[in-house]
Amino acid sequence: MSPISPLEWPVLRQLRGRDALGRGPAVTSATTRELTSRNARADRVVQSVCPYCAVGCGQRVYVTDERVTQIEGDPDSPISRGRLCPKGSASEQLVNAPGRQTQVLYRAPRSTRWQPLERDTAIDMIARRFVQSRRRTWQDTDEQGRPLRRTMGIASLGGATLDNEENYLIKKLFTAAGAIQIENQARI
Length: 188
Ligand code: SF4
Hints:
Layout: H1 10-16, H2 30-34, E1 44-49, E2 58-64, E3 67-73, H3 86-89, H4 92-96, E4 104-106, E5 115-117, H5 119-137, E6 138-141, E7 147-158, H6 164-176, E8 179-184
Parallel strand pairs: 7-8
Antiparallel strand pairs: 1-2, 2-3, 4-5, 6-7
The protein binds iron/sulfur cluster.
The site of iron/sulfur cluster has 11 residues, from helix 3.
């Protein structure tokens, strides 16, 4: 480490420079001057919305080498104005956690093991069961002949990671299919 010149003493810098009150550069060390934001090297910043709850706080997502490296509050958001709660502040971990599940898993009836499944196969299985349940539990009229046109065999329970658009489509789909038990954390 090179010796510090006496001219670098903060009080001298205070007297020689324009920071007479010693609240800025006169009392800033070389180490502090070299510090940069951990986001300074990000390739780009993407605006997004926190997926965790119905408040919908705005986020800035920092991307480096096509990987999310940090997520912070978005000051441009009229909802949260740059703030995130502890959960929202930790959402980078949602993306990069090593234990994150990225594959469809299926556990067959009475099996004790999960097995990976192709996504298209899983969607076909869900669609087939959806249609079968609807047919099996369809109620066209009540015992007095009054129209019901509904099924009590299908329900939808949505979580916080669904956004407004997804909830809108789910509500439309399930209502059109005759389901009446449709619920979500955001209570659309
Ligand atoms: S930052 Fe917190 S309050 Fe805001 S949307 Fe996310 S979980 Fe909800």
